[in-house]
DNA sequence: CGGCATTTGTCAGCGAAATGTCAGCGCCGC
DNA sequence: GCGGCGCTGACATTTCGCTGACAAATGCCG
């Protein structure tokens, strides 16, 4: 069970992480909206705890963006006590639950568990990027309607590029995403993956910008 | 959209009925636990609003009885403000959501809508997935009309996969579902179960996507 | 309580798929 | 033309999932 905590107050974040870790979650933290959006969009979490007041990009916008991109993981919003309009907005934006501050850690954990129970088996919409279609439910991709038989690593690359949109992604960034910083690989490992991917997708899907990185050709 | 309101205070019940009717629900009301249990158990509702403090039979017991009988409609519990332990109990009893009193009617409606959105497509007592038929009442499964003599664990795997639809389920997720996080098993335990299952179902039912997980072949 | 049958977990080993590494080459941009 | 980045194919290695046999746990019945 992997959980992303989005909270800018380090004290609260630490409390949350503590309670959830004790409850058996693996927790990761980010403290601003931009980072939250990116992490939640590229990694797979079983649960997200989302504070609304965030620097750089507020929580509701983060949530809306995730849902617009088809990310369907359960999200529990932390709201200020009594701000019922915030709650309604949150639900409309695609939140699965909210918890008014202050709250008991026991309750947070109970609701987290319930959310996950409820959310398991939820459907992730498919992403269509011109010729490329990504279906995270079935873990498959297709180009021009032709199924690609992708390996896990290959699919992860494709999903990451898709999330980046038409932005050029540096090899370093991709390497860091695929493997952590701890067990790094040769830069060539990535090139090999890309090569195998291209052999399956055919030309016109993954582009190279010499000296910069890779991008999704069909996303622009 | 048919909604059952279980509430013994006539004023609150009237308010609820008003708001929900304006929101497009057909509402029906009962004021005590016995009546609630009977109505909810014999009629089909899209949503139940359930107060916990009820005469004759308290709300939690009603809910537990419904769930024990296999009634799966979404239930929104009304709790007294701040009684967080009551909320936890409610969730454990099978509630889909709760709302602390007092609350705004706008919020109730928003949450009711969200609940129904979430609950639509919930499992049917007898599921037919192409060649595979699951009967949860009798706890049996059959393929091409041929009965499978499944063990409890095997059936649980099949039901979970069926619930996931055509989604690919990771071994981790399945393991966590079958056993809790507390008494974990070797990953191989699952593989053994799958193997035995496949021997009984024959080929073409449970598929593997190497590196991703398992899926129901006949659900796609 | 004890024995039997069924269910379930563990182990070791195998084969195949996925991934990493390497060496060499082509091609882009200067 | 040249230097180097990035691509490619071949090969090595690692990981993953399946299988069959056995052991442990569970449950049932007398």
UniProtKB/TrEMBL annotation, chains A, B:
Coiled coil regions in record: none
Record has DNA-binding as a keyword: yes
Domain of life from the UniProt record: Bacteria
Domain OmpR/PhoB-type: 124-218
Response regulatory domain sequence ranges: 2-116
DNA-binding stretch(es), residue numbering of this chain: 124-218
InterPro entries registered for this protein in UniProt: CheY-like_superfamily (IPR011006), OmpR/PhoB-type_DNA-bd (IPR001867), Sig_transdc_resp-reg_receiver (IPR001789), WalR-like (IPR039420), WH-like_DNA-bd_sf (IPR036388)
Transmembrane segments: none
Entries under SMART domains matching the protein: REC, Trans_reg_C
Pfam family, one: Trans_reg_C
List of residues that carry 4-aspartylphosphate: 51
Keywords: DNA-binding, Phosphoprotein
PANTHER family on file: REGULATOR OF RPOS, RESPONSE REGULATOR PROTEIN CARR
Name of the protein: Response regulator transcription factor
């Amino acid at each position: 069970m992997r959980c992303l905590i989005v909270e800018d107050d380090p004290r609260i974040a630490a409390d949350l992480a503590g309670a959830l870790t004790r409850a058996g979650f693996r927790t990761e933290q980010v403290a601003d909206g931009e980072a939250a959006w990116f992490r939640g969009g590229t990694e797979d979490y079983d649960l997200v705890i989302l504070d609304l007041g965030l620097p750089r990009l507020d929580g509701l916008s983060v949530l809306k963006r995730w849902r617009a991109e088809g990310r369907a993981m359960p999200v529990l919003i932390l709201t200020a006590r009594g701000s019922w309009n915030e709650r309604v907005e949150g639900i409309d934006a695609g939140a699965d639950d909210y918890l008014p501050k202050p709250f008991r850690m026991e309750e947070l954990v109970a609701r987290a568990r319930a959310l996950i129970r409820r959310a398991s088996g939820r459907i992730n919409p498919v992403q269509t990027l011109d010729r490329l279609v990504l279906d995270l439910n079935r873990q498959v991709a297709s180009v021009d309607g032709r199924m690609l038989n992708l390996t896990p690593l290959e699919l992860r690359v494709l999903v990451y590029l898709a999330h980046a949109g038409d932005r050029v992604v540096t090899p370093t960034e991709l390497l860091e995403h695929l493997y952590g910083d701890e067990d790094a690989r040769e830069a060539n490992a990535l090139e090999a993956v890309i090569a195998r991917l291209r052999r399956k997708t055919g030309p016109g899907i993954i582009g190279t910008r010499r000296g910069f990185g890779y991008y999704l050709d069909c996303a622009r």
